[in-house]
Amino acid sequence: MSHATLRLPAEWEPQSAVLIAWPHADTDWADRLAEVETTYVALAAAVTRFEPLIVVVADAELRAHVEGKLREAGVDLGRVRLIELPYDDTWLRDSGPITLKDDRGAFQLTDFRFTGWGGKFGAEQDDALVAGLVKAGVFGRAAHRRIDWALEGGGIESDGAGTVLTTWRCLVQRHPEQSREEMSAILRDGLHASRILWLDYGYLEGDDTDAHIDTLARFAPDGRIVFQACDDLDDAHHDELSRMAGELAALCMADGKPYELYPLPWAKPIVDEGRRLAASYANYLIVNGGVLVPAYGDPADDEAARIIGAAHPGREVVQVPCRPLIWQNGSLHCITMQLPAGIYG
C-alpha cells in the first residue's frame, strides 16, 4: 500500500456500514438508560433504511435485549450485525477506527490512542476497541495501524481530497507540549493529509471534548462548510461562535477559492439540573442517500434540517430525537462511526 494513494474519505462518500455501541447499565448512561435507548432505537431504524448497522454489545444478555428492542421497533435485523466486545462507553466517533483507503480498494484502520478526552474518564477498554473489532474479523484483510498519539475521530473533519479541519482548543489540551507545526506534521502523516486547517475559536458549554470540530463545523460536498452559528446577542456563545464564523469565512479551498458557508440556527438553551447542555445541529451523520439530523424538541429543529439538507443535495433528511444524548455531552455524530464502502460486507 503506497503512502501516496492512501487518503481519509469524506463522510459523504459511499459507505459499507455504520458502527455504534449500545448503552448499558455499566456505562455512564445507567441513570437514564430507558430514555437514551429510545434514541438508539430511532438511530438504528434510520440507519438500516439506508445501509447496514454494526452494533457492539457487551455480552450475550445485552445482545438478546438489543435484538428484542430492534425487532419490536420493526428494524430489519437482516441489516444489523451484533458483536460482543467490552467497552467503557458508547462514543464510537472517538474510540472507533479512522479508516483510510487507497485507490486500489485497500484499507487501513488508523487507531490513534483514546484517552477518555484527555483523561477525564476511564478509557482502557475503549482504547482497545479497534483491535478487538479487527480480531473479531469485522474488517476482512484491512491493515491496522496503531498510532501512539491521542486523537479522537470527532476532532477531525476530512473533505476526502487531502484537507483536514480541526480545532486548536482540543489538540492543545491533548498535547500541551507540542507546537501547532508539530501537531500538523503528525496529522498529515497519520491521516495522509496534504493540508491541516485550524480553528482557534468555537466551543459549546456542556461539551467535554474540548471543542471537537464535529460539534462546530463540518465539510460538505462541493466546497461547502456547515457550521453552528449563534444569532442570540445575549447568549454566552455569541462572541466565540461569531469569531469562528469569521475564521471559516477566511479559509480557502486548495484551489484558493473560499468555502460556501451554511450557518445553522441556534437552539434555545437546554438546561438539565442547572447544567447547560451542548445542543449542536452540526453533529449530524451522513449515510448512503440520506443525512440523519439531531432534533432537540426546539423550534429551530426543522430549519436546521432544511439547511443541512440544502448543503447535502439529493439526500433524504431524517430527524433523530437526540435530546437524551446531550445529557452526556454529545449527540448523533459522536455515537456513530461510518465505514467506507468496500471494507465490510
UniProtKB/TrEMBL annotation:
Key words, A-Z: Hydrolase
A Pfam family this chain is assigned to: PAD_porph
Record-annotated membrane-spanning stretches: none
Single annotated GO MF: protein-arginine deiminase activity
Keyword Hydrolase tagged: yes
GO biological process, one term: putrescine biosynthetic process
Keyword Hydrolase: yes
Name by which UniProt lists this protein: Agmatine/peptidylarginine deiminase
Organism: Dyella marensis
